[in-house]
Amino acid sequence: MLAGLMLVGMSHAQEPLKLVDDVDLERYQGTWYEIALLPNRFQRRCLANTRADYRLLEQGRVEVTNRCQRSDGSWIEVVGEARRAGDDLPAAALEVRFAPRWLAWLPMVWGEYRIIALDDDYQLAMVGTEDRRFLWILARQPDVAEDRLAKLLDLARAQGFETEKLSWTPHDDR
Questions:
Q1: Cα–Cα distance, 51 to 68 (Å, whole number)
Q2: How much is the pLDDT for 10?
Q3: Could you tell me the CATH number of the domain that includes residue 159?
Q4: pTM above 0.70?
Q5: Domain span at residue 97?
Q6: Minimal CA–CA distance to 158: which of 125, 116, 115?
Q7: Please, what's the largest Cα pairwise distance for the chain?
Q8: What percent of the chain has pLDDT over 70?
Q9: Is the pLDDT of residue 6 over 50?
Q10: How far, in Å, are 80, 124, 146, 158 from residue 96 at the CA level?
Q11: How confident is the model at residue 124 (pLDDT cuts 50, 70, 90)?
């Protein structure tokens, strides 16, 4: 029976995410609008106008500034840092932290940031985590053409994400 349970568990194991082949962080920096996300606890107070600003720092590090609007109209802003997840991993395997810099030595303050889609013009991206609990669709503009979104959704589903649970982010702060 135990062997049977192990086989069932193995059959449900997910394949590793397929990441984009390469990422030029210089081109990736700048403003990205959140188009959609799988809801998560740390963004539960964000109602609209969510965006991320990435700024390349020295040694391949990236300053991350996330900003969103609450239901009362006030803004939430958090600043963190992203970096390569490891020399043995692809450039699209990043990790990000929003804990204070002096805690950066603790592995638990870093979260996965895996770029699983990125168009050639660096105008549209999709980021997720290996456990498929987190997914973001990002774009340089607050609106994305339906056909382009459909392709991303197909890719996300093919990688095991529950796209029917996506929450779409409204933008009116243009």
A1: 6
A2: 42
A3: 2.40.128.20
A4: yes
A5: 18-168
A6: 116
A7: 59
A8: 91
A9: no
A10: 7, 19, 29, 25
A11: very high
